[in-house]
Structure formats: C-alpha cells, structure tokens
Amino acid sequence: MLNWVQQFDTFCFLDNHQYQIGPHTEECLLAAGVKERLDISGNDFLEQLSRLTNNKPRWLFGHLGYDLKNGLENLSSSLPDHVGFPDLSFFEPAIVIRLNETALVIEAGDPLTIYNNIQAQPATPVATPARSVVIKQRVTREEYLSIIRKLQQHILRGDCYEINFCQEFYSTEAVIDPLQVYRHLSEVSPNPFSAFYRQQDKWLICASPERFIKKAGRRILSQPIKGTAKRMLDDEAGDKKIRQDLFNNPKDRSENVMVVDLVRNDLAKICEEGSVKVDELYGIYSFPQVHQMISTVSGELKEDVSFADIIKASFPMGSMTGAPKKRVMELIEQYEKTKRGVYSGAIGYISPEGDFDFNVVIRSILYNATAKYLSFQAGSAITFYSDPENEWEECLLKAAAIRQALGIF
Q: How far is residue 407 from each of residues 132, 247, 314, 371, 392, measured CA to CA in Å?
C-alpha cells in the first residue's frame, strides 16, 4: 500500500501498530490525492478552518503546526523555519483506505481497480542506495545546561511552573528515501500514533506515542504524556523495577499532574459543566525503548461546539508547552533556536461524522527534499527540581530511535 501511494504528491498514512492505547477505531488509515485543500500560514485561521470543517460531511486529513499559537494568543514568532510546512493544512482526499481487524475498506470511484493496483506492488520497498546523513545540534551541551538553569530561574521568580524546552538536531545536505526511513523507524520504534505524511517535497516521518485529542460523538478525550524512563531490555527484573520507579517518581508525578490540570482546564471551556474527569492518572505504558507515564482526561462536549472551537480551547497541547501556557510559549520563543513547525503540533483526521483523532507530533523527522534539509527535535519538561544533566540525557534518549532509523549509531 505504501509503495502504491508514492505516486501521489499528497498523502497521509496513520498507523497504530496494533497498540491498544484505546480507543482506536482503525488500525490504519490512508488518504491520497486531493479534491480540496486549505493551507494557511499566519494568524487568521480559525474562521477559514471553521468554514472548511463545517462545509459538508467528508473526510479531512492534515496537520496543525505549533505556530498557530500566534493566532490564538497575542504572540509572534521570528525564529527561522528551514522545512517550510504551512502552519495549517487540511485536504479532502480522493481516496481513503481503512484497515481494521475485520475489513479493508476502500472509499473511491473504483475500489476493485485500486485494490488490484495495490496488490500488484512489491511487498517491500524498492531498495535505493543509502547515503550517510551528518547530524548536527543547534545547541551544545554547555549551552543547553545554561539555558535550563536560566529557565529554572524563571520558575523561581514565578514566571511559570513547568516548561517544555526542545532542541533541534538537523542536516543541511540530507538525501534520504522517506519510505525506507519510515519503515526503519517503525521497526525500531513502533508507536500507536505513527504517521507518514507527504506534501509535495515536504515529508513528516512520525513515531509518536502520544494522543493529543480524540472526539467520538460528544465524548472528547486527551492523553498527555509526562514521565519517561529508559528500558532495561536485557534484564526483566531490572526493567520491571524501572517501570515501578517511574510510577513512584515524585518529579514525574508532579510534571504529569501539572499537565493533567492544564488539560482539564482546557476541556472545561468546551465541555458540559462537571463532565470533565481524569479516567486514568499516572498510567505506565511500555514501548520498545522507554516506559512512559500517560494520563487520560475526558469530558462531554457542549452542544454545537465546532472543531475550530475545540482547537481554540486546547491548542497547543499542554504537554508540549507547560504552564501557564502563554508565558511559557513566550519563553520557548526566547530560548529555542528554530521554529518548531509541525513538531509539537498535531496530525490526524476528521471523519464524515465529525469525529476526529489527532496525535502529538513528537519522535518525528521533518524533511524538505528540495532543500535537502532534515530536522528532528527532542525536548523534556523542565521544573525547578529538574537536573539539567538528566534532561540533556533524556533528550538524547528520545533522539536515539530516530538516529538509528537514519543509520546513525
């Protein structure tokens, strides 16, 4: 299917890798070709997004970039962006393919022809010569440690309680085969909110473990992640202890409950009074490289709340900003070196019924094939009690699977 879809200059593939970080409706979704699209870069997006999503029942796939924040708060961005995705992009696909446990459903003019064309494709990607990618970092270890200490001074002064600070890893002469890299990343780090996304010469290769927000009927839920621990795969007892230590770690619990409170506050703006609840607090979920602490917050939407209303209330997600949101976004702009772009934004779909599911774009590669620019970022939640050295190591741990997928060890 992924070999077949390469003929399209716009497509979006979403895969849960059979994880049950419920509720998932489909195992895989693929959208290809464009009937209509909306691309926006700038602050005036809510009205256009509202018109697009309220126009008629249909599938829509696309992304929300981090810098939509500037249209939601009185904020601005002047940092460089070397990849060039629009701040917001949605398209109505010509073809939708849905795969679940019982069926493969092709929604297009001639499903049988599409199915036969897919079946005629090779079962594995056609091999292309690999070229080495040289990865650089925007900040040195010493610069990073200095920035963390400055952020802790902001916390001490009461500017904020917690801030998600990210650093960029990049290559300026990268030539990759995006499909092969996606397959490698999926082998190294299969995750429940993975995505493979193309817009002409721009690609997103994503192995996200985190859900931003999902709507089913009038129920809406968010599943923020805060708390990460490296696994000990060659020692079952040691790995079990690491998992238990993560669950009991006061720093991780503090970070997690802080973002849970932020999500509860966001959902309360759009949900029926008294309906917002924490379904699971401090849940520990295991992935190939790490254990993660995931909580689930849900609520019952008020009548006549639109998709644009929901985004206005909840974006950007608290797990990628911190608290309070506006002030930490100002500090992110002050201390980070490049725009986040799609990173720490969201990618997903809206169904014809108006339901939707969006991830948090983390553990991801952004690639501009024309510019040969490749970028991935890693971050962590900074509190007053954070150890700067440990935060540096956490970023390197999160980047490890991406480096492995690119053949860099």
A: 8, 33, 37, 21, 22
